[in-house]
Amino acid sequence: MNYNHSNARRGKPKRLLDPSAGLSAPTPPMPQSSYMYNQQVPVNNGAMPEYGFNVPGQTPPPPSAPYGFNPQISNYPLDNTQGEEFASSQFATQLLAQPMVTNMAVQYGNTLVGTGKQQFEKYVPVTALKYYFAVNTDYVFAKLMLLIFPFTHNDWSVKYEQDVPLQPRYEKNAPDMYIPTMAFFTYVATAGLVLGMHERFTHEQLGILASSALAWGVIELLFHTVSLYVMNVQTSLATLDLLAYCGYKYVGINAALLMSLIFGKLGYFTMLLYFSISLAIFLMRSLKLRVIPQGHSSYTASGNKRRLYFILFLAGIQPILMWWLSYHLI
């Protein structure tokens, strides 16, 4: 039997690579060259370099790479959001530039302002306040003289023009809100001065003093309004008229506090007593023509008695409130 030795294996058997093991044949080292064109050299454990050009067939760098050219990534957004916003803003600008649209916007704004003004005047009588603050320097001086020296004044009636009372600047018998408002703020400043002279001034005490004075004023106004309603007394007095007449007492309080700084308690009580009498005369003569109807000279009727009691009470409560708001300061 002939046996062919030429088919016998020579040398060691070759080992086949296992594809499932994820191994590959070792790559022979590339020749080092001083110039390399369009080649990727794996460095940093196989990570892609930060510089270079992409080679076809290789994975492109991520979009966050600061350098390099990547034709697959565009510099513009994929959607048209910015273009739509620009077009819409340009359209709005052109629309507002039209005269018809501008006129419509102006008319709508005027209507809105007028509605808001009506709602505001519904709760705050702005027109009435303008009347009570229509004063000038001559009126203020004449009214202060009338408050301090009411004995020599004879005509206490308020003149009318076309069924509308004249403004205070033209009629010194008309009530105003300027003198009571300024007298109240002067009262707060004078109280701070008196407390400072007695070394008892604090910011908290001054705030408490102002708030308590406002509270007493509101209580007094409510009491007089409810009294007129309960007694069923019909008068021509408005709420702001009552507020004005009740606010004139701050003029006497300021005068009494200033006299206390000069002459002590004697000057305070002297001025307080004098102004209490003058203010009572001023209020009784001013309110008589506003509370008691014209043409009724007798006070014996029940309605006129109630009106007279109201006048006496309003005039008599003012000296008590003047003392209550100022005595603790001296």
TrEMBL record:
<dbReference type="GO" id="GO:0006888">
    <property type="term" value="P:endoplasmic reticulum to Golgi vesicle-mediated transport"/>
</dbReference>
<keyword id="KW-0653">Protein transport</keyword>
<dbReference type="InterPro" id="IPR005578">
    <property type="entry name" value="Yif1_fam"/>
</dbReference>
<keyword id="KW-0256">Endoplasmic reticulum</keyword>
<protein>
    <recommendedName>
        <fullName>Protein YIF1</fullName>
    </recommendedName>
</protein>
<keyword id="KW-1133">Transmembrane helix</keyword>
<dbReference type="GO" id="GO:0005793">
    <property type="term" value="C:endoplasmic reticulum-Golgi intermediate compartment"/>
</dbReference>
<keyword id="KW-0333">Golgi apparatus</keyword>
<comment type="function">
    <text>Has a role in transport between endoplasmic reticulum and Golgi.</text>
</comment>
<comment type="similarity">
    <text>Belongs to the YIF1 family.</text>
</comment>
<feature type="transmembrane region" description="Helical">
    <location>
        <begin position="308"/>
        <end position="327"/>
    </location>
</feature>
<dbReference type="GO" id="GO:0030134">
    <property type="term" value="C:COPII-coated ER to Golgi transport vesicle"/>
</dbReference>
<keyword id="KW-0813">Transport</keyword>
<dbReference type="Pfam" id="PF03878">
    <property type="entry name" value="YIF1"/>
</dbReference>
<dbReference type="GO" id="GO:0005789">
    <property type="term" value="C:endoplasmic reticulum membrane"/>
</dbReference>
<dbReference type="GO" id="GO:0000139">
    <property type="term" value="C:Golgi membrane"/>
</dbReference>
<dbReference type="GO" id="GO:0015031">
    <property type="term" value="P:protein transport"/>
</dbReference>
<keyword id="KW-0472">Membrane</keyword>
<feature type="transmembrane region" description="Helical">
    <location>
        <begin position="242"/>
        <end position="262"/>
    </location>
</feature>
<feature type="transmembrane region" description="Helical">
    <location>
        <begin position="208"/>
        <end position="230"/>
    </location>
</feature>
<feature type="region of interest" description="Disordered">
    <location>
        <begin position="1"/>
        <end position="31"/>
    </location>
</feature>
<feature type="transmembrane region" description="Helical">
    <location>
        <begin position="177"/>
        <end position="196"/>
    </location>
</feature>
<keyword id="KW-0812">Transmembrane</keyword>
<feature type="transmembrane region" description="Helical">
    <location>
        <begin position="268"/>
        <end position="287"/>
    </location>
</feature>
